[in-house]
């Protein structure tokens, strides 16, 4: 699945959870579960919110990092989603 296909199916909770599991990053999953518990929402909603934070708040340098990561990755969708989630989580800790 490409990043574009993931975003096209963004309202499908199963698609989001499958993508999240596909990242194979238990620490990232645990951080997202903490956000979901803190916000009183489900995991898919926490993922949407976190990616939204990247889209709304990332600076030019961070946006320029994205195509570089995508170009070097074996699975660009995973690399892009992971970057967005890590950034969004890092920013949520600052607010």
Structure characterization notes:
It contains 6 helices and no strands. It is globular. It has helices spanning 3-8, 13-22, 26-39, 43-57, 60-72, 76-92. It starts with a helix and ends with a helix. The model has no long low-confidence stretch (mean pLDDT 91). It is mostly helical.
Short recap of the structure:
The protein is mostly helical and 95 residues long.
Features:
single chain; 95 residues; 0% strand; globular
Order of helices and strands: HHHHHH
- Uncertain regions: pLDDT < 50 for 5+ in a row? none
Rounded to the nearest angstrom, the distance between the terminal CA atoms is 32 Å
Strand residues, percent: under 5%
Derived from helix and strand composition plus strand pairing, the structural class reads mainly alpha
How many DSSP helices? 6
Shape: globular
Look at the structure and give the mean pLDDT.
91
CA-atom Rg in angstroms: 13 Å
Described by strand count, sense and barrel closure, the largest sheet is: none
Oligomer: single chain
Please count the beta strands (DSSP E, at least 2 residues each): 0
Which helices and strands occur, and which strands form pairs?
Elements: H1 3-8, H2 13-22, H3 26-39, H4 43-57, H5 60-72, H6 76-92
Helix pairs in contact: 2-4, 3-4, 3-6, 4-6, 5-6
